[in-house]
UniProtKB/TrEMBL annotation:
PANTHER family, per the entry: GEPHYRIN, MOLYBDOPTERIN BIOSYNTHESIS PROTEIN
Reaction it catalyzes: adenylyl-molybdopterin + molybdate = Mo-molybdopterin + AMP + H(+)
UniProt organism field: Methylobacterium indicum
Record has Hydrolase as a keyword: no
Protein name: Molybdopterin molybdenumtransferase
């Protein structure tokens, strides 16, 4: 298994854009996940560890695309109806006993192999059966309704590239081309903590000054949707004496540690010092809002990411920063997030030099164009802004003002591309 090195997260320098951060991850972070072979039925959502090559042509033989009658095109009378005697019947799954004789038609069904000599198929609803013969209309093109061997996939071609996150259609294609099992990357093991003396477990009675821990619930759910094995290790208290040992213990047996809160510069933000006591922390300052105070580093050979404490910042940074890191560690090919254009139905001012993600709801305007309506309140601590919006409008670094009518790119929730 590859190991992370001391300099893989040594990005430093000025504030990084999201693209620059993703590029540095792709350049410096090695793939950690090993491989295993699993059945197709268990492979949905896993990462292909090797190219999947077609073991046969698809379809494997010329076959009929419809229920109808197979003929030789040269037996048809140009511009007029043709009557041919029907010789034989060929259902799907059967092999033709003999070729189609000249001057005859054969009853054939969808998926059945084309009998030797036949090259064209008439749909049954387009013909007229007359006893032991069939009347065929004029106008059909040569080769109509015939599927050629290999027209979908050629034997020996790559049907699924290494690094692809497998989908149900991928698995169906693998099955159709002769595979019962695939080599995939093992699932990454991710440990998740929340930090802070103010946190209480969900459902617990709150003491004065306490709040329920929602960040950990958000992180665990998102990470599981991203296909990793998550170890929920609870709440780390703001105790500088115990934090280092807790982090070091979490590093053993995990590929990544993700925490929320405690990585800023406040007097009660002890995570930075704890990581430096047992590993190496390089602050990765992103030009992003919400989410600027995000930290990356190493504890032994385990990657560490410290996310901000506000829940919206946790959401944004996990999906735009941590997700590319997970893809790289897990051997997946990076994917550009899908977005869609929308017309802004709001006005907004921002600073130059940083990217902002504004929570918006989407609807169609009077002319049918999709419009983005900004959530009425700002704040990275508003969980209701995530449940009460459809997605995030991305405002690039060079934008300082958005006017109603401007076009913006929107990423729909839950942003798990």
């Amino acid at each position: 298994m590859a190991q992370l090195t001391d300099d893989c997260f040594a990005f430093g320098g000025p504030l990084l854009s999201v693209e620059a951060a993703a590029a540095l991850i792709a350049e410096r972070v090695p793939v950690l996940a090993g491989t295993e072979t699993i059945a197709l039925t268990d492979a949905d959502g896993r990462i292909a560890a090797a190219d999947v090559v077609a073991g046969l042509d698809l379809p494997p033989f010329d076959n009929s695309a419809v229920d109808g009658y197979a003929v030789r095109f040269t037996d048809l009378t140009p511009g007029a109806e043709t009557a041919l005697p029907v010789r034989g019947r060929l259902p799907a799954g059967a092999a033709p006993d003999a070729g189609l004789p000249a001057g005859a038609a054969m009853r054939i069904f969808t998926g059945a192999p084309m009998p030797p000599g036949a090259d064209t198929v008439f749909m049954q609803e387009d013909v007229r059966r007359e006893g032991e013969a069939v009347a065929l209309p004029s106008g059909l093109k040569a080769g109509a309704n015939r599927r050629l061997a290999g027209e979908d996939v050629a034997r020996g071609s790559v049907v699924i590239p290494a690094g692809r996150r497998l989908t149900p259609p991928d698995l169906a294609l693998a099955a159709a081309t002769g595979h019962a099992a695939l080599s995939v990357r093992r699932r990454l093991r991710v440990a998740v903590f929340s930090t802070g003396d103010e946190l209480a477990e969900p459902g617990a009675k709150l003491r004065p000054g306490a709040i329920h821990d929602s960040n950990r619930i958000l992180l665990v759910a998102l990470l599981r949707r991203l296909g990793v094995e998550v170890a929920d290790l609870g709440i780390l208290r703001d105790d500088p004496a115990t934090l280092p040992d807790r982090l070091k213990a979490a590093a053993a047996g995990h590929d990544l540690i993700v925490t929320s809160g405690g990585v800023s510069t406040g007097e009660e933000d002890h995570v930075k010092a704890a990581v430096e006591a047992v590993g190496r922390l390089v602050f990765w300052r992103l030009a992003i809002k919400p989410g600027r105070p995000i930290a990356m580093g190493l504890i032994g050979e385990t990657a560490f990411v410290g996310l901000p404490g506000n829940p919206v910042a946790v959401y944004v940074t996990l999906l735009f920063v941590v997700r590319p890191l997970l893809a790289r560690l897990g051997g997946a090919v990076p994917e550009a997030p899908p977005s869609e254009p929308a017309r802004a139905a709001f006005r907004y001012a921002k600073k130059a030099g940083r990217r902002e993600y504004v929570r918006v709801s989407l609807h169609r305007g009077p002319d049918g164009t999709v419009e983005a309506v900004k959530f009425p309140r700002d704040g990275a601590g508003l969980l209701s802004s995530l449940t009460g919006s459809d997605g995030l409008a991305e405002l690039p670094e060079d934008v300082t003002r958005v006017e109603a009518g401007d076009m913006v790119e929107v990423y729909r929730h839950p942003l798990l591309w």
